[in-house]
Amino acid sequence: MERMIGYIDGFNLYFGMKAKGWTRYYWLNPQKLCQNLLKKNQTLVSTKYFTARVTSPPDKHRRQSTYLEALRTLSDFHIFFGKYQLNRWQCTACNAEFNIPNEKMTDVNLAVEILTDAFQDKFDVALIVSADSDLVPPIKKTKELFPSKRIIVAFPPKRHSAALASVADASFTIGRRKLATSLFPLRIEKPDGYVIECPEKWRT
User: pLDDT tens for residues 43-64?
Assistant: First the structure.
């Protein structure tokens, strides 16, 4: 059996679903998604999820905290945090100022994990869920150092990178059906009896 590790760019996936208006899929189980993308001769040995904590507005912070709690119920699932910051931007036409969200370090953390796992021979196939072209260099280096290892890129909805597709062994776009069959149950009961519930806003 081929060993596969899934590497999930959380915000890239989130904003892809948001662009499609697929709010109901925000309650996604990334591990189950990777399992649903396996070939018959593959086994999922680990899933790595890369994100950053949202601190404002408060309602988004609460929803993300609930989601992170759901993710922590998964076994062989690892969360890596970057930084999420708001940058001030001024419109040159009207002088109005806006806060533009900007996520930092996901691509670096993801690159480090892929190369480390390749060196430690932890996978035969790496499944990368992202369309961030900043991942081209680490993919090329992994392929250069370990030509027998395969890199598959799964683009989130409404996301694509020709540069990523050109360096991967294969690429495709994640469809609605795969997302729909990869959700957490609306209620997750932990061993201590505590129940985690899908945020109401994500149920429609």
Answer: 999 999 999 988 878 899 899 9
